[in-house]
Amino acid sequence: MTDTVGAILDAAERRIREAGYSGFSYREIAVDVGVKAASVHYHFPSKDTLAAAVAHRYNDRVLEAVEAGMASGLDAIQAWRAVFRDALRDGPRMCLCGALGAASADLPPGVMVEVHRFFRSGLDSLRKAGLSEDRATQVMAVLEGAILMATAQSDPEIFDRATAALD
C-alpha cells in the first residue's frame, strides 16, 4: 500500500467514524490528505469501493488486535472491550462498522458485506471462547451501545461505566 492510499484510507475512516457513510466526500478526503480529488478517484473509483476498503482494513485491524489481546492473556470479552475502548483514545469516535451499520439501509452491497463480516467475526470470536450465541450477542450489543453513548456525550468514562459489568 502506498503512503497516499494509506492516508486516503485513514482520512476516510476518520470521517466515516465521525459522520457515517453519507458524512464524507472525496473533496473532503482530498483536502485532509493534501491531494487533488482526482487522486482519490484514481485509487478508489467510487465511494462504495473506498468505504468497502476502509471497512475491510478496519475489520482486519480489529480482529488482529483482539487476537493479540487474547494472546497476551485477556479473555475474549476483555480483548473486545479493550479494542472498543482503545477506539476512544483519540477522541470520541464510533466503531466504524457500528457507524456504517446504523445506516445499513443506505449502504451499497460491498460495504454491507464488510459490516456483516465485522459483526459475524465478533460473534464467532466470542463463541469460540465459550460464550453462548445469546451472550456473545449481548456483549457485542453492549460494546456498540457503550461506544455510541460515549461518543455522543464526548465522555469515554461512559464507555467504562457501561461495560464494567462485562468483566
UniProtKB/TrEMBL annotation:
Is the Transcription regulation keyword given for this protein? yes
The record's annotation in PROSITE patterns points to: HTH_TETR_2
| DNA-binding annotation, residue ranges on this chain | 25-44
What the entry lists under Pfam families is as follows: TetR_N
Name the domain of life. Answer: Bacteria
Tell me if Transcription regulation is a UniProt keyword of this record. yes
Q: Which UniProt keywords apply?
A: DNA-binding, Transcription, Transcription regulation
**Which GO molecular function terms does the record list?**
DNA binding
Tell me which residues make up the HTH tetR-type domain. Answer: 2-62
Give the matching InterPro entries.
Answer: Homeodomain-like_sf, HTH_TetR, Tet_transcr_reg_TetR-rel_C_sf
What name does this protein carry? TetR family transcriptional regulator
Q: Which organism is it from?
A: Methylobacterium brachythecii
